[in-house]
Known about the structure:
Elements: E1 4-13, E2 18-23, E3 28-31, H1 33-39, E4 49-54, E5 60-64
Antiparallel strand pairs: 1-2, 1-4, 2-3, 4-5
Amino acid sequence: xxxxxxxxxxxxxxxxxxxxxxxxxxxxxxxxxxxxxxxxxxxxxxxxxxxxxxxxxxxxxxxxxxxxxxx
Length: 71
């Protein structure tokens, strides 16, 4: 099972497709283009709620909208 967390977009650069999120527990995590590209999304906006999947070492692997979870 892939660990899933929820958080809020703190910053997103559409050119680099990277940014950072503030998790619900207050932890700030960064994500790169690979995680964004895996989402199938075209854009993220500041303050948007997202779900975050990560691997065992904590690297963000995918970002989705909570309503898209399980798709």
